[in-house]
Specification:
The complex is a heterodimer of chains A (381) and B (439). In chain A, 25% of the residues lie in helices and 19% in strands. Chain A starts with 31 loop residues before the first helix and ends in a 28-residue tail after the last helix. With 381 residues, chain A is of the alpha+beta class. Chain A is globular, with a radius of gyration of 25 Å. Chain A has helices spanning 32-37, 75-88, 111-120, 159-168, 170-173, 215-221, 224-229, 263-267, 314-330, 337-344, 346-353, and strands spanning 41-48, 51-56, 61-67, 72-74, 92-95, 101-105, 184-187, 201-206, 236-243, 246-253, 280-285, 300-307. The model of chain A has no long low-confidence stretch (mean pLDDT 96). In chain A, the strands form three sheets. In chain A, strands 1-2-3-6-5 form a five-stranded antiparallel sheet. A four-stranded mixed sheet of chain A has the order 7-8-11-12, with helices on one face. Chain B has 439 residues and is an alpha+beta fold. Chain B folds into three domains: 7-160, Alpha-Beta Plaits; 175-240 and 324-421, 2-Layer Sandwich (Sulfite Reductase Hemoprotein, domain 1), CATH 3.30.413; 245-318, Alpha-Beta Plaits (2-Layer Sandwich), CATH 3.30.70. Chain B has helices at residues 7-10, 20-33, 46-60, 112-125, 146-160, 190-200, 202-206, 228-231, 248-255, 276-279, 308-312, 358-374, 381-388, 390-397, 430-436; strands spanning 80-81, 99-102, 109-111, 129-132, 139-142, 175-176, 216-219, 234-240, 245-246, 289-292, 295-298, 317-318, 323-329, 343-349. In chain B, the strands form four sheets. Chain B has a five-stranded mixed sheet. Chain B has a four-stranded antiparallel sheet with strand order 1-2-5-4, with no helix packed on it. Chain B has a two-stranded antiparallel ribbon with strand order 9-12. In chain B, helix 2 packs antiparallel against helix 3 and helix 4 runs antiparallel to helix 5 (146-160). The radius of gyration of chain B is 28 Å and the shape is globular. In chain B, 54% of the residues are buried. Classes of the chains: A alpha+beta (381), B alpha+beta (439). Chains A and B meet through strand 1, strand 4, helix 2, strand 5 and helix 4 of A and helix 1, helix 2, helix 3, strand 3 and helix 4 of B.
Chain lengths: 381, 439
Amino acid sequence: MAFISSGYNPDKPMENRITDIGPRHFEEFYPEVIKKNKGKWLYHEILKPGVLVHVAESGDEVYTVRCGGARLMSVTHIREICEIADKHCDGHLRFTTRNNIEFMVDNKAKIDPLIKDLESRKFDGGSFKFPVGGTGAGITNIVHTQGWVHCHTPATDASGTVKATLDELFTDFQTMRMPAHLRISMACCLNMCGAVHCSDIAILGFHRKPPMVDHAYLDKMCEVPLAIAACPTAALKPKKIDLDGGTVNSIEVNKNRCMFCGNCYTMCPSLPLADKEGDGIVLMVGGKVSNRISAPKFSKVVVAYIPNETPRWPTMTAQIRNIVEAYAKDARKYERLGEWAERIGWERFFGKTGLEFTHHLIDDFRDPAYYTWRQTTNFKF
Amino acid sequence: MAKHETPLLDQLESGPWPSFVSDLKQEAAARAKNEKKVEYQIPQDVVEDLLGVLELSYKDGTTHWKHGGIVGVFGYGGGVIGRYCDQPTMFPGVAHFHTIRVAQPSGKFYTTEYLRQLCDLWELRGSGLTNMHGATGDIILLGTTTPQIEEFFYELTHNMNQDLGGSGSNLRTPADCIGQARCEFACYDTQDLCHTLTNEYQDELHRPAFPYKFKFKFDGCPNCCVASIARSDMSFIGTWKDDIRIDQDAVQGYVKGEFKPNAGAHAGRDWGPFDIQKEVIGLCPTECMKYENGKLTIDNRECTRCMHCIKVMPRALKPGKEKGLSILVGAKAPILDGAQMGSLLVPFVKVDKENGYAEIKEVIEAIWDWWMEEGKNRERLGELIKRQGFQKLLEATNITPVPQHVQEPRTNPYIFWKEEEVEGGWERDVNEFRKHHLR
């Protein structure tokens, strides 16, 4: 393969350089009906799972067909999305915050041919390319992180756990039988690039073994003070180590103080944590970001550890299914999972889901822990 | 014939949900075939090797990616994340596999022309693999080699009029909800504010000068579809000050069952006929609504704008007309001191496009000045607020304390009085004191 120059001259990097132009202006990408009616929408309705209509003051309507998909996508797949958008939507489309694809048409008659086209497309392996759904009181796409596909700190894979979970919950992507919408998010380590900490159900990868110390390289690879300062529990301290007849500057880990956050590894590659037996999944539930009825809430840890059972994480998907069904059966209309758990009491949540309550689920991290213990005689037997 | 056997990953091809493994295989096959005779600038079998290294992770339960090295484009300190494989001999195609972040357009609307152009460029100069989109909002392009980064950037800026996004200790690419483009609830133009501030702060976005990452997110209303309240150092959430607009005829439409409550979101189960007392009045968290004699009334002064009633009856109820936004600050994920939700700093500010959002920028820049002065290395804004106290944030932004700032007043009396707040100051003469109080 011959090198193809873009026109960039490495000897004169500033020549004809364009910088700081930002993203393209959003208006370039609006479909006509959006441009015309922006800010003048009257109401919307979900016609059926995955299909929305928005009605404007002008009487114009825009019909949206929402499709799920893997956020990891190839250019071949994106070109197929473009082909569909050219065929049905005048060359426009959008993505949602939760990695869904939205195809918009301005006429009701265009919906069915579009859906038929979308549903007819399958990958060679047999899965749908563009399943329609993800609206209303159902389960929409799972936002997630990179995992083993592209990250250096994950404790599990992201794409695989998400695929396995959404295969399990697929009918709830395409129906709206939940008491309220149920948002699942996935992050593959405590860094939470996926910011799963306010989700109805959060799938979180985490480590359970303290870092190993690569003494031979640590001082060459890392700034010792920065690595030590990175530890939130002061579990690291500097230490001189005798190695191969000499002495090297390194780090000692107080293993009992480690909370396995991996922040030291982010600062210092000579402190790896990843481990097949140590790593796994924690499940958290009951978070939300909406201010509707009750204030936004953090998710709470309800399953402290599930091993990484590749490639399909069957224990994890079974536990998620179990939580979803207990919620669907027992919660009131409009009640989010966390609101339900708070109304019935967390002791009842564990009763109804059958999840085991262990000491791992009691907070012991700094001051906020105290506020999660029960300072009242009001509880249920 | 695949380059690497992937028996574990193959099991993720079945099932109804779109399979990323099938898509990776489809891309690997397309590159092998190369019908368009593309002169690939990185290894043709890059996707094969990605499948191979991923299969290895599925087998041994650990990642095979190393820390990023320092890679990037000249003059920027962000937008490119170095990534190297820890088994380069086994998987040479992904030995160097850097990520490029491309700033997404506000609202994530696209034309196919734009996406095709991006696909062509990324197929030529990268792996052909993307994330649409990353968690912060950028278009993520996964996997290229160091020599291709400047070439890619040159073509991106010259041919596509498009810039990179943020990474590292800088302003990360701001993100917004769909807003007024297609949502009746949006109280301000999220796309315009997001785009304007993204462009205003290009220097902060490309050249890391902050203690740590800093995120803006723009939600058009308190529903927070882009999760700003949980995920951004500064969260801009649309709201209103005056009365919810009521269309009594449409209320009757819901009561009589002509319109589906909650826009039809609950259609998958028989919840029985709509009951306005139970589903709207009874669930109002401030009990500020009444439905009597076929008429809905709201005591708007007591309303906290949770929007439940509006969401249940979108044809009948609309946010008021005096719209603006609330600014909350300091949200972050748990690393390190535990997760933080955004805390209310500015209860209401008009979203004034005409004056270039001057009032909003004033708050942003005051916060940055304080954080850049006081923040420790890798300390998020929320952690600084916790360490120094909310009062310091108010001082830095010159905002007057109001009861809206707190859930409740403090439960301890450990007040850090300042000397100038105490009559007579703190300097006293102990000898004078002893004249009246013997040792």
